[in-house]
Amino acid sequence: LREECQRLKSLEKSYLREIAKLPKGSLQQKRIKGAKYPYWVSSHQSKICYRYVGNLSESELKKLKEQFALRKKYQMLLKDVRQNKKQIEKIVHG
Prior knowledge:
- This protein is α+β, with helices and mostly antiparallel strands.
- The protein has helices at residues 2-21, 58-93; strands at residues 26-32, 35-44, 47-52.
- Strands 1-2-3 form a three-stranded antiparallel β-sheet, covered by helices on one side.
- A hairpin with a 2-residue loop joins strand 2 and strand 3 (47-52).
- Helix 1 packs antiparallel against helix 2 (58-93).
- The chain is elongated and about 60 Å long.
- The mean pLDDT is 92.
């Protein structure tokens, strides 16, 4: 169990490193006068910030979407790892 706890700790660190490399936020489409425009939405100091990204090419927008999806995936995996680590630490120390 101690080995599993150590493995989960290293996994947690690697997920945190990967999450730090990826951009925060999401892409949303705003409809203005009937036309759709892509915006990068993120929060900064408890404020929602919208940044127009329509000047990016389709491939760059696709890459940005993939990065947001990958960040979300890593965050879910990190949550699972932390829950498992917490349970194992209770067993080992309790």
